[in-house]
From TrEMBL:
Annotated CDD domains: TMR_SDR_a (cd05269)
Pfam families documented for this protein: NAD_binding_10 (PF13460)
Taxonomic superkingdom: Bacteria
Organism in which the protein naturally occurs: Sphingobacterium oryzagri
Residue intervals of the NAD(P)-binding domain: 7-149
Name of the featured protein: SDR family oxidoreductase
């Protein structure tokens, strides 16, 4: 069975390929990427695959039995891009699509949710067997800021006391690989999140312990946080979106205690302390 991985050269995609190669032969995996040359180091077949080039997608999917559709990163364009891919997959004879969605997408207040909900509906209406992986927050969404926080002497956000049940990106990648190589997955919707939730105050405390100095968490209003991000060079609209996601976290939209991810993995999810440690070592 040939499995196609969209976005295979992205941060999640590379990890999925790595985990999938542990479970099936490399010749069974196809990287579907905009620039195949960038996938050379993956050691698998690579095909040109541009989410925006709807007319070319079908040919790239010929011979693919199942597809991991990793959601695109162009916010505002994703619903259309994903529909293009699902339509092409059906035309090419793909038998099963696994889609990376958002934790509790149908009830979430995150601005990201609407495009995921739209994609889920297109997938359900397509007449192809599907599995939906509703991924919670990546811990790396926050650990990416640890170097800056250490330098500035504070970790900032607008999540209040909201509990965040994040997991390391590799945990979600392994879960995808498991689903792609397991039977009886059609129609399943997995709500996936980390085992142990934390507040950003607790995140800052762990960071402080690891660097050996006090790095407090400073909770800002949504607009204040967006303004600081803009001053740091984040594009204004994206800065506002990031701040809004934190506000959603304060309302519980990034919390989940169902344990579905660890159950699927057959192990505990990666601890927050471990991901912070890795971030500090590479920053």
């Amino acid at each position: 069975m040939k499995t196609g991985i969209t976005g295979a050269t992205g941060q999640l995609g590379r990890l999925v390929v790595e985990k999938l190669k542990e479970r099936t032969a490399a010749e069974n995996i196809v990287a579907l990427v905009r620039t195949p040359a960038k996938a050379a180091d993956l050691g698998i077949e690579a095909r040109s695959f541009d989410y925006d080039q709807a007319e070319t997608l079908k040919d790239s999917l010929v011979g693919i039995d199942q597809l991991l559709l990793i959601s695109g990163n162009e916010i505002g364009q994703r619903a259309t891009q994903h529909e293009n891919i699902i339509t092409a997959a059906k035309a090419a004879g793909v038998k099963h699509i696994v889609y990376t969605s958002l934790l509790r997408a149908d009830t979430s207040t995150l601005s990201l949710a609407a495009e995921h909900v739209a994609t889920e509906q297109v997938l359900k209406d397509a007449g192809i067997a599907y599995t939906i992986l509703r991924n919670g927050w990546y811990t790396e969404n926050y650990t990416g800021s640890v170097a800056g926080a250490v330098a500035a002497g504070a970790f900032i956000g607008s999540a209040g006391n909201g509990k965040i049940a994040s997991a390391a990106r590799v945990d979600y990648a392994e879960a995808a690989a498991i689903v792609l190589t397991s039977e009886d997955q059609a129609g399943k919707v997995y709500e996936l999140a980390g085992d142990k939730a934390y507040t950003l105050t607790e995140f800052a405390a762990e960071l402080s312990a690891q660097v050996g100095k006090e790095i407090p968490y400073n909770d800002l209003s949504e607009n204040e946080y967006a303004e600081v991000l803009s001053q740091l060079g984040v594009p204004k609209e994206f800065a506002q979106a990031i701040a809004g996601w934190d506000v959603s976290a304060s309302q519980g939209d990034l919390f989940d205690d169902g344990g579905k991810l660890s159950s699927l993995l057959g192990r505990a999810t990666t601890p927050l302390a471990e991901t912070i440690k890795e971030a500090l070592q590479t920053s």
